[in-house]
C-alpha cells in the first residue's frame, strides 16, 4: 500500500531531503500524487530507494545509477562486498552532527556504528564533502579531546582504525585514467601519526592520482627510492608532531635532496607550517589546509 514520504524515509533509511533531491535532480523515481499533491510511495519505490541507498553508501554516484531499472540495481548490489552496512546510523543533515555522533560512537567503542556514520556521510555529502567537512574536523577534535583527557587513548585508537580502513579503501565504482600521475604518500621516520597521510591519499585518489601508500614512520631514503623506482610525479609527506624540530627539518631537507627535480615534494600536516620559513628555499611545496592540499595536488598534475 502506498505510503507518504515520512514513512518511505523510515523504511528506506534515507532522509526525506535526500529522497526529494534524488527525485528532482536525478529522476531516480516518480512517486504517485494524491489529490492534494502529496507524494505517495509504493512497494517498488521503497525497494528502489533501499537499493540506491546501499549502492551510494558503497561509492556509486547517484547520477550513475539513478536511472537504472530495479533489476539492474539488484545486480549491482549483488556484486558489492558482503560486509555492506545494512542500515543508516541516523537522520543527520549537517557535518557537525556527523562529527558529534562519531565522537560519541568512539567513546562507546562502537566501530560498526562509526563505520556506518562515515559511510552515511559519504553518501549524503559525497567523498570530498566527507573528507573536508567530516573526517578532517573529526580528526582534529579527536586529537584535542585526547590531549585534554576527555577521550582515552583506546577511544582514539578505535576511531583511527575505522578511519584508516575507510580511507585506505578506494571508493567502489571509481575509475582511474590509464596514465594517471603517481603520488607516493608516507610520513618520515619518527612520525607515527598517519591519519594526515591517509587523508592525502584519499584526496589524491579522488582527484585522479594513482596513489602508492607507504604508511608511517619510514626513512626518507626508502621513500625516495620508491618514488624514483615508480617514476612518481610527486611525493607527499605528512608531519603532525613535533613542531620546529631540527631532526624533522633535516629529514625534509634531505628528502628534497634525494629526489630528482622532476619529482615534486609536498609537505602538509599540523606541524608543517612550523618548517615552512626555514625551508622556503628548498623547493618544497606546502599544504596548510585541505583546500590548499587540493590546489597543490591539482597543480602537480599538470
Can you give a write-up of this model?
The protein is an alpha/beta fold and 302 residues long. The protein has helices at 5-12, 16-26, 43-57, 62-65, 70-78, 95-107, 111-147, 153-168, 195-206, 220-229, 246-258, 273-276, 290-301; strands spanning 32-33, 39-40, 182-188, 210-218, 234-238, 264-268, 285-287. The protein folds into 3 domains: 5-78, Orthogonal Bundle (Multidrug-efflux Transporter Regulator, Chain: A, Domain 2); 95-168, Methionine synthase domain (Methyltransferase, Methionine Synthase (B12-binding Domains), Chain A, domain 1), CATH 1.10.1240.10; 182-301, Cobalamin-binding domain (Rossmann fold). The chain contains 13 helices and 7 strands. Helix 6 crosses helix 8 (153-168), helix 8 runs parallel beside helix 9 (195-206) and helix 10 (220-229) runs parallel beside helix 11 (246-258). The model has no long low-confidence stretch (mean pLDDT 87).
Amino acid at each position: 500500500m502506498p505510503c507518504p514520504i515520512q514513512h518511505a524515509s523510515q523504511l528506506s533509511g534515507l532522509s526525506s531531503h535526500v529522497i526529494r533531491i534524488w527525485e528532482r535532480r536525478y529522476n531516480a523515481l516518480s512517486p504517485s500524487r494524491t489529490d492534494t499533491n502529496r507524494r505517495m510511495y509504493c512497494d517498488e519505490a521503497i525497494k528502489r530507494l533501499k537499493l540506491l541507498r546501499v549502492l551510494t553508501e558503497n561509492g556509486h554516484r547517484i547520477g550513475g545509477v539513478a536511472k537504472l531499472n530495479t533489476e539492474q540495481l539488484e545486480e549491482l548490489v549483488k556484486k558489492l562486498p558482503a560486509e555492506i552496512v545494512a542500515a543508516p546510523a541516523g537522520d543527520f543533515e549537517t557535518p557537525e552532527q556527523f562529527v558529534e555522533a562519531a565522537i560519541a560512537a568512539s567513546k562507546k567503542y562502537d566501530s560498526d556504528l562509526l563505520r556506518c556514520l562515515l559511510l552515511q556521510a559519504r553518501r549524503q555529502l559525497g567523498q570530498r564533502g566527507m573528507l573536508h567537512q567530516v573526517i578532517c574536523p573529526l580528526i582534529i577534535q579527536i586529537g584535542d579531546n585526547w590531549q585534554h583527557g576527555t577521550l582515552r587513548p583506546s577511544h582514539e585508537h578505535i576511531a583511527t582504525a575505522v578511519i584508516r580502513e575507510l580511507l585506505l579503501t578506494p571508493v567502489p565504482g571509481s575509475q582511474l585514467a590509464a596514465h594517471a600521475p603517481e603520488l607516493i604518500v608516507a610520513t618520515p621516520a619518527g612520525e607515527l601519526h598517519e591519519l594526515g597521510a591517509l587523508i592525502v591519499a584519499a584526496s589524491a585518489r579522488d582527484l585522479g592520482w594513482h596513489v602508492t601508500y607507504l604508511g608511517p614512520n619510514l626513512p626518507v631514503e626508502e621513500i625516495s627510492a620508491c618514488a624514483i623506482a615508480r617514476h612518481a610525479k610527486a611525493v607527499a609527506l605528512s608531519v603532525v608532531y613535533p613542531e620546529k624540530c631540527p631532526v624533522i627539518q633535516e629529514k625534509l631537507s634531505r628528502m628534497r635532496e634525494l629526489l630528482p627535480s622532476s619529482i615534486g615534494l609536498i609537505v602538509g600536516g599540523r606541524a608543517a607550517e612550523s618548517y615552512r620559513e626555514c625551508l622556503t628555499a628548498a623547493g618544497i611545496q606546502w599544504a596548510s589546509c585541505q583546500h590548499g592540499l587540493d590546489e597543490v595536488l591539482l597543480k602537480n598534475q599538470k
